[in-house]
Amino acid sequence: MEGRGSQAGGIDTLVANTDVTSLLPCNPVIREVAPGKISLEFVKPTAMMQILGDAKLAGLAREADAMIERALGNA
Fold it and tell me: Residue ranges of the chain with pLDDT lower than 50?
């Protein structure tokens, strides 16, 4: 999934296991917790994919976790 957009990752996940549709989309919550202070909250993809017990999905979720961590590190 490296270097591809999140839509491509979502398609890879759907192709890997169609049961994942009940867990998607992974919607972030963005809220102002104090004047000028923003909170970004969401469930880690690995936590969501563990529910299905599918090794291929777990691998895709780890890749998604890494991309999210990189994005947050650049914020």
Answer: 1-8
